[in-house]
Amino acid sequence: MKEISTKLLDDISSKAIENPRKRMNYNFHKDGEEILQRMLNALEPDTYLPPHKHTDKVEVFLLLRGKVHVLLFDDAGEIVEVKTLDPIAGEYGVEIPAGIWHTIFVQESGSVIYEIKEGPYVPGVGVEFAPWAPQPENFTEVENYMNSLSQKVKELK
After folding, report:
1. Rounded to whole angstroms, how far apart are CA atoms 55 and 126?
2. How large is the greatest C-alpha to C-alpha distance in the chain, in angstroms?
3. Which pLDDT value is given to residue 44?
4. Looking at residue 53, what DSSP letter applies?
5. DSSP alpha helices (H): ranges in the chain?
6. In terms of Cα–Cα distance, which of 50, 40, 31 is closest to 4?
7. Which among 12, 76, 99, 110 is least buried, having the fewest CB atoms inside 10 angstroms?
8. How confident is the model over 75-128, as pLDDT tens digits?
9. Domain boundaries, the chain
10. Do the Cβ atoms of 115 and 71 come closer than 8 Å?
11. Distance CA 94, CA 141 (A)
12. Which residues contact 65 (CB under 8 A, 6 or more apart)?
């Protein structure tokens, strides 16, 4: 049996804080070949998850602690929906259908999601990154993009 405890969440959150990408995975699946990929993702507010879509797979996010916005986009990169996940407010998770552009915009330090998606996992296969969003290595563009997303989320809320 595999357990999810406060200690495990604290451990991966501290690793996320130390990681330059401001996030850290903890996999429950053995390898990329498993049919069901299950993992914890510890996410910090400054992390950048490039908007993307899975061409043929459903993805599920369950927020265990913290607060995040899940953003859905149209093909032009405009936000079409914002769902705030906050377990304290009774908003726990979302299921994102295949083919939908999405990202997570982290609001609180120590946020951890339990992510489930269909496998097998093959790097670069079945996922498309949004052509209208900056690449992670373009730090200035990423910072400007995240600031604009933050403003748009405030306007939509």
Report:
1. 5
2. 44
3. 98
4. E
5. 6-18, 139-156
6. 40
7. 76
8. 999 999 999 999 999 999 999 999 999 999 999 999 999 999 988 888 888 899
9. 6-156
10. no
11. 28
12. 9, 87, 110, 111, 112
Number of H helices, E strands in the chain: 2, 10
6-156: which CATH topology? Jelly Rolls (2.60.120)
Please tell me the distance from the alpha carbon of residue 55 to that of residue 74, in angstroms, as a whole number.
14
Taking the C-alpha atoms of residue 141 and residue 118, their distance in angstroms, rounded to an integer, is: 32
Global pTM?
0.94
Instruction: Give the CA distances from residue 101 to residues 52, 64, 67, 73, 109, in Å, rounded to whole numbers and listed in that order.
Output: 5, 23, 20, 5, 24
| 109-137 b/e (C-beta count within 10 Å ≥ 16 → b) | bbbbbbbbbbeebeeeebbeebeebbeee
Q: Residue 46 corresponds to which amino acid?
A: D
Helix, strand, coil shares, percent, the chain, to 5: 20, 40, 40
Sheet containing 101-106: which strands, arranged edge to edge?
79-85, 68-73, 101-106, 52-54, 127-129
